[in-house]
Amino acid sequence: MSEETFDVIIVGAGVLGVATAYYIQLNSPEKKILLIDRNLAAGQANTAMSAAAVRNMFASSTNQILTDTSIKYFEYVQNELGHELFFEKTGYLWLLSESQFKQESVQLWMQRMKASGVHYKVYNKKELKELIPGLNVDFSGDEEAELMHLQEADFGLFGGDCGVLDPTRLVEHYFEEFKKITHVKPRFGVCVKKLLLEAVPKLDLPGEPHVWQQKKVTGVITDKGTMRAKTVVLATGAWANELLDPVGIDSMTKAKKRQLFVIHAEDNPKLHDLLDTKGFNELGCIPFTILPSAGVYFRPQLQERGFWIGCGDKFGRGYEYIQTDDMMVPESAYYENSMYPVLAKYLPAFESARPVNSWAGGYCYSPDRIPFVYEECGVLVVNGASGSGIMKADALGRIADALYRGEPEAELFGGKHVSSKMLSIKDRNVEIESVVI
Amino acid sequence: MSEETFDVIIVGAGVLGVATAYYIQLNSPEKKILLIDRNLAAGQANTAMSAAAVRNMFASSTNQILTDTSIKYFEYVQNELGHELFFEKTGYLWLLSESQFKQESVQLWMQRMKASGVHYKVYNKKELKELIPGLNVDFSGDEEAELMHLQEADFGLFGGDCGVLDPTRLVEHYFEEFKKITHVKPRFGVCVKKLLLEAVPKLDLPGEPHVWQQKKVTGVITDKGTMRAKTVVLATGAWANELLDPVGIDSMTKAKKRQLFVIHAEDNPKLHDLLDTKGFNELGCIPFTILPSAGVYFRPQLQERGFWIGCGDKFGRGYEYIQTDDMMVPESAYYENSMYPVLAKYLPAFESARPVNSWAGGYCYSPDRIPFVYEECGVLVVNGASGSGIMKADALGRIADALYRGEPEAELFGGKHVSSKMLSIKDRNVEIESVVI
């Protein structure tokens, strides 16, 4: 097969891939940039499987700046550029027991948000009960709740600048803008089998590259042939290890299965009431809400008049080396036995409600819960967003572009500057994140 | 099958497993401790595949203290207890080019060794050539050497308190001492299939543990049945992910294949001369030597009148999720094409010498090149020594024991105290190591 050559090949047309493609092409208009994905369209894999909520309520200044600037860019896209993202400021509501609220990590989180100017508000139990009459804030005497180790909702930590959006629309924005300026038509249905690792210079010895040779990733070997580029960008999320490990680059990330189950309000007036909870936001809807126990959360879905129910699996849910096909299959028993009992205890409105839809995907976990953007031996990696890639996509795309151009700093939306090596492995300079879902 | 119950099950009878078993039993004489291994004897897997060199010449104070106290214990075992370890103070000799020697990381390494009282000596090129007449220190005009990017040996960094030992003897020491005090006969040929993860308390619900239940590792499921213990110690090295990932504990480690090739001096007088190099140590032998380029190193093997040749593979040698069977198979082409050309350039005595033996195993890589010792949900993990588990075994066994007993500090050999959580993931307090082979 003939070999084609590009300046940059970007593997993965999820939200991080399209944002990176857009910013690299924008700032290097002469470069030939090929965007490829194994799926048949952009944003169809884990980006589409996400809960697609966005928040600036992080404990680390690193994640705060990545999300805050990205969210402001999303508002700009929707309000100034007129590209509808269905970005709705529902707010985020963390429900916490008194002991959780008093934890050092939670106090530090609030202090750091205050220091960074991230707006938040604290509700007490009485206020919560007034705002959400259907919320069960008293488990006293409930033996089942005790058996389930459920913590009571004593406090609500609310961030009004947070919300939800349509990830497909966001991908579409970057992808359409990229298509306007790229010299190379993006290609879909192209599966990268491995990175092409070659000796520099090539001596054409059998078995090279040998240990005494300098080496570099010079392209990708795909099911449609070999393609070469000076830089290969990997925006492959939970698939990164499969490509990086064989060349000896440790991505530091692992995959974890996450699932979402959709409940529609339908003819259940209590669920309509819950969805239409007033007092938190201008939309007059319930915020994206995290329950105090078991990692269960839900987001409102206003167009569908429903809720997406998720769970931040911790100990007990396996890590996987790479994403498996099995990760794409939601488990109805998991909803029934793990999520539903918790959900229905806090919000009896959900009693007897059954999912009308569900999906699952791969969550790309980083050990410090901060994403990675680094370049090593011809590969530029953008991943490890620990379930919050959408809300950091704009900042990560700009940082990847700055790194590509060899710029010491990246300018984020709004004019803030950060070191382009801040998210690398070798020169990492981040605050460890404690607030992930 | 019937289920047996112990206080502690230790999985893996490599050097870290036997040292940990010994110290836990020594300090908790009443506990029932079962040591198991999939192999048919202790120390037969990666411990036996190691180059078994020991050094205190690390750049991090963390690795310095782990190795320095362990090496002093090994001397005590050999000299005071009379258990022959074939611990020979050959010394370690790092050969470096001028530009390598001037690197900030190398200067910092020397500063830190000085600060910690680690003895070392610097030789210049002239002194090296006098001590090792067979060493090629001048590649000028050698086009092949230039093509191979070989750096000249301008400096030698020598540590006289370092050496080599017989790993089988070291394992035997801990294993025999453990057998004297354990209540339970160690079992071999027992393969752990998975960790037993259970809800606490068990409610006997279908599919438990569910997300709202507290959970804990309560034993192991093996090919010989299920065994329960309050604490399961994993000293499984490069196999850890296979057991930890499914329960949702990220070991942070990865495996890498490493190979050793044995050259005997036989009837080659130049190799005998090289082996009998005087001036470095009381044994009158060549030290364990690391060449300036490509990661190639060799250790003298005095009993066999030969050398073990190894290579610290970097970029280009794949990481693996877990150790594979393939990792146990040495590649003769790798010796021929990668290691030999480098070796023969620096030391022409090796020209035309061919390996008489070879083996390969799994190197358990930690991202900061510092080992892990931590307890999480019923599992106590001891691993990630990045190729230097043998030389840290005594300290790691003592730290694991202190952590098991809930002691805030571990007392290392010689009386030094360190935090027992220093090597954990959550409360990690270490210096990043820059000097690994």
Describe the structure.
- The first copy, chain A, is 27% helix and 26% strand.
- By secondary structure, chain A is α+β, with helices and mostly antiparallel strands.
- Chain A folds into two domains: 4-51 and 169-252 and 368-419, FAD/NAD(P)-binding domain (3-Layer(bba) Sandwich), CATH 3.50.50; 92-159 and 254-365, D-Amino Acid Oxidase, Chain A, domain 2 (2-Layer Sandwich).
- In chain A, the strands form four sheets. In chain A, strands 4, 5, 6, 12, 13, 14, 15, 16 and 17 form a nine-stranded mixed sheet that branches. In chain A, strands 1, 2, 8, 9, 10, 11, 18 and 19 form an eight-stranded mixed sheet that branches.
- The radius of gyration of chain A is 23 Å and the shape is elongated.
- The relative contact order of chain A is 0.19.
- The mean pLDDT of chain A is 96.
- The interface between A and B is large, with 53 and 53 residues.
Question: What is the topology?
Answer:
The structure is a homodimer of 437-residue chains.
Chain A: E1 4-11, H1 15-27, E2 33-37, H2 46-49, E3 53-54, H3 61-79, E4 92-96, H4 98-102, H5 104-116, E5 121-124, H6 125-131, H7 143-147, E6 155-159, E7 163-164, H8 167-181, E8 187-188, E9 192-199, E10 215-222, E11 225-234, H9 240-244, E12 254-264, H10 269-275, E13 288-290, E14 296-301, E15 306-311, E16 319-320, H11 332-346, E17 357-365, E18 372-376, E19 379-383, H12 393-404, E20 409-411, E21 417-419
Parallel strand pairs in A: 1-2, 1-11, 2-8, 4-13, 11-19
Antiparallel strand pairs in A: 3-7, 4-6, 5-6, 9-10, 10-11, 12-15, 12-16, 12-17, 13-14, 14-15, 18-19, 20-21
Helix pairs in contact in A: 1-8, 1-12, 3-12
